Known about the structure:
Number of helices: 13
Amino acid sequence: MGVTASGTSGARFAAPSSAFADAVLPRLIAGYSAAADPDRAASMRAYMKDVAPFLGLTTPGRRALSRTVLAGTARPDEADCTALALRCWELPEREYHYFAVDFLRRHVKRLSSGFLPVARHLVSTVPWWDTVDALAAHVVGGLVAADPELKADMDAWIEDDDLWVARTALLHQLRYKEDTDTARLFSYCARRAGHPDFFIRKAIGWSLREYAKTDPGAVRDFVARERGSLAPLSVREALKNIGP
Length: 244
């Protein structure tokens, strides 16, 4: 296919050949382009802080178009998922990235631990919360749940200089509930408690707030222990639904 991707780690990989991606991508581009709304696109781009151009598709409209594009297609394998995601990420308009994220979420159980470098590339390329958070909770989280050996990669990601990679490590357990590795969650929050960026501080609070739905007492105790190092934003988010 000739597409080469490089993540912030410096690892390079070529997207695999995929007849599936070859068939889907032209249909996707034709369907999305025909429904573009330039006026809405301008407001969406402004709302997302100019991270990327937009076509101006609403989420319900986009997902309806996606279902039409994928109707009748074969069941994809990991190579198909990889090729389609990387090729979507090469397109400038953000809706193609959203399509890729939705597609990977749907087929995450078809992905092996070998997909993690691709996920990192997607997280760290044209990064913003709108794609990173879904990739963290639904794709990276799914990969780690299926292969606990990937926890070692999360231990490295939490220390990464790329804030979006670190945010992904913080959020990858967001949907684990009672299966949360509590010691790891609290360790990650404590290790990045002093981070100056809003998106890390918010992610700390969000990850704690979500786990508080499962074990509010453990979250209260952690916040009490670490209150001197946690940012006020992180504390407010963590205790939002359970109180001090």
